[in-house]
């Protein structure tokens, strides 16, 4: 995207400097670091830029600590464009938090600087494409290494006395020193993992885009989903957690222990431990859960996301769904052979339309796109799900120490502190311990956390503006279009406001269905979904795949052509319209919808049940 | 299933049997064999014609009329032609031939579920003795033929058409014997179109062969072909068979058959129906599928006419009426439209340096491409 904004008379989104915070959110700016905020003395600079709300990754208001991962993710995204591969036309993406939501502004390279960057890009990115497989193997080792280091971190309560061994060994250090070091290490490991996250990702998208652009020229108006289907593979780690659930469901039926799976997880596990069949099942569960149930019900970015391994009720309910399907004779397996056969048919039929030279180019570009694509899908499990699950678990271990020391009541309360304030709280705890007095935290944090909870709640009561300031004349920056689904047309629609019941988005996965809408704004409400409903949500997570078998279609507010929502829906053959911008605002639970995954149109049908729940 | 006799044959069985059922019926049979749904019907075979000719003294009478004829004497030619045709058309058929035709017609009516089903009766030449005897070409054609008596009558008239002045003259010029001709007849259900239109297996706006363009309107297809209505215009992807763009046309009138009058009448289309797509998504896919199938069968881009029939059950009611080669784009040399043909890093660099223009698929201005190109 360029920073040439539209003419002065063209319509524009509100300036962040003019948007009032919702009532009750006074003081919200203290929740986030200064550099994530629009500052008054930068008004001229920041008002000159166009910002869009990234609600695909951050649909909910940030709790102060949760902003850390956003900062790391967007910083490292930029770092690889700007400093590693020197992507000729694109630097990073600037980011801000405004009224609790995340806004982004891609930074273009000045036209006269682009040529100088080309040789660097060719050498650096060229090396990665040439050595893709060996570098990916190296990545795997690094990423698993970080996860192991995270797992090894230990937050232990401060002992009454320094261990005798430390004294007699002449260590000369207190465990407080270890506490702050362990916290800093956890933060540093998370930062490292986000670096690795983007080591390959932008290059992967670039190769995908090259094939995408080629197809759009060779076959004008080719549906995006046709391109996705040609590139998409079948056997991905991202689908492993769901496959493991299916395996456990089959084992349940095989062992004839369906009835023993009823009720809450802790009771189920206790019951299963008492029979031979149950113990066989538990052994299979234990084998599957690490690493595959380090799978977040959300997208891994929020401290509130429930991770299967910590909330076994979530995967257990999915397993019960699968068992019920098996009992009615349904096939729950993805038909991998059919997916491959269809992919080959589609690829073959398009290739057949080209002359020999063009077909060779098509083959080469497709080959490269297919090489990079597994990373585009799989990284999500390793970083967002597995690594972040461990990270959040460790942060909760730390919070538990504070709970024991009376700083706050609930383990989740720590996330109302900024990451720098946690260091300060550790200092407070250490001080009290060292001096032999109560720390100050218990007198300070409970009231402050209550105040902050009120602010977050107030911010959450308002929906974010989809964008800020004057949009550029045309959006042509490929990543913005592909990943966020932000196109000139979309902006026009947003500026035009919501008109009637007209909801259009990207035709992400084909199929035409009618059904009852279920609007879900929080991953933790997924259990409200009933069979045959149409899921309407801001954005889906890959870990929602197990409920897809029960759905008729999915409609999302945000999501580009190769967003996770689109990928997973295609994989599961679920009609989907993504990136509507307004579906959750317009549609009410209970309304009857027609979803056309061929054209990207969603219609609210006049019907008996159009009242909101 | 219609019974097969020496004298009639279901169109489904007619593939590859040129001498028995003639070019028209053979090509219909070939299309059915290729999965292309033509209107149901049967052939009256060349054996039936032969039997009719061998009936009594007919052969001798015809031979007598034609012997020594100077075909350049046009008034004499016309008189002889009229005499021969009158003989053939008034002569009673052999009983077993007539019965076979009546049986085949009754079975056709029963299979559609419409008694006295209106049919089209057309001649189907068995030899390449007349130029233009192809699927598209026609000799005698009788539309809105209703009832077994009428079918028998029109079949005889088709036989008589072997002795038009033009046909006689042609055989004289080519030196073909007059008594060695054979003739089959095609009897097909009259299409009772709920919706009809045309389709082309490429995008006529830019020659893109990965697309199929469909024009669709209510009633019989003449309104679309003549340009009397603005039909719905749909651009489909040929490989995925999904809709890429759709423009709803005005379709303000429709041509519907008036069976008693034996002709089509024009009727207003209500505003509600005008605003709707004439075809359901499933029907669109089915039309695209047969267009694609026709292209595969004929091995070149096709321009087809199709109809959705009122009388036939869902799933069997889409009919292919005509298929002919597309001529404009098919004859142009292919020009590569690729601006970034480099592969590997050079290709990626090219992509990154080029601004991306992407429209969302459900944009407001759909259909412009297809409409300009038209499909007529």
User: Looking across the biggest beta sheet of chain B, what order are the strands in?
Assistant: 9-8-7-6-12-13
CA radius of gyration of chain B is 25 Å
* Annotated CATH homologous superfamily of the largest domain in chain B: ATP-grasp fold, A domain
Strand content of chain A: 5-15%
CATH class of the largest domain in chain B: Alpha Beta
The oligomeric status of these chains comes to heterodimer
Helix content of chain B: 25-40%
Taking all Cα atoms into account, the compactness measure Rg of chain A is 25 Å
The biggest sheet of chain A, with number of strands, parallel, antiparallel or mixed sense and barrel status, is: 8 strands, mixed
Order of helices and strands of chain B: EHEHHHHEEHHEEEHEEEEHHEEHH
- Uncertain runs of chain A are none
Précis, in short:
Chain A has 613 residues and is of the alpha+beta class.
Describe the structure.
- The complex is a heterodimer of chains A (613) and B (376).
- Chain A has 613 residues and is an alpha+beta fold.
- Chain A folds into 4 domains: 1-129 and 464-497, no CATH class; 130-223 and 364-457, no CATH class; 237-333, no CATH class; 499-605, Phosphohistidine domain (Glucose Oxidase, domain 1, 3-Layer(bba) Sandwich), CATH 3.50.30.
- Helices cover 51% and strands 10% of the residues of chain A.
- Chain A has 20 helices and 12 strands.
- Chain A has helices at residues 43-47, 67-84, 111-130, 132-152, 164-168, 175-218, 224-231, 240-255, 265-272, 276-292, 313-327, 336-352, 356-404, 419-435, 441-460, 478-484, 488-496, 545-548, 564-571, 583-586, and strands spanning 51-53, 90-98, 101-108, 467-468, 503-504, 506-509, 512-520, 533-537, 553-556, 576-578, 592-596, 601-605.
- An 8-stranded mixed sheet of chain A has the order 5-12-11-7-8-9-10-6.
- Chain A starts with 42 loop residues before the first helix and ends in an 8-residue tail after the last strand.
- By secondary structure, chain B is α+β, with helices and mostly antiparallel strands.
- Chain B has helices spanning 18-33, 46-54, 58-66, 74-90, 95-112, 148-160, 165-174, 222-226, 271-275, 281-298, 344-353, 368-373, and strands at residues 8-10, 41-44, 119-125, 141-145, 183-189, 193-200, 211-218, 232-237, 243-247, 253-258, 263-268, 302-309, 318-325.
- The longest helix of chain B is centred in the first third of the chain and has 18 residues, at 95-112.
- Chain B is elongated and about 85 Å long.
- Chain B starts with 7 loop residues before the first strand and ends with a helix.
- At the A-B interface, helix 3, helix 6, helix 7, helix 12 and helix 13 of A face strand 9 and helix 11 of B.
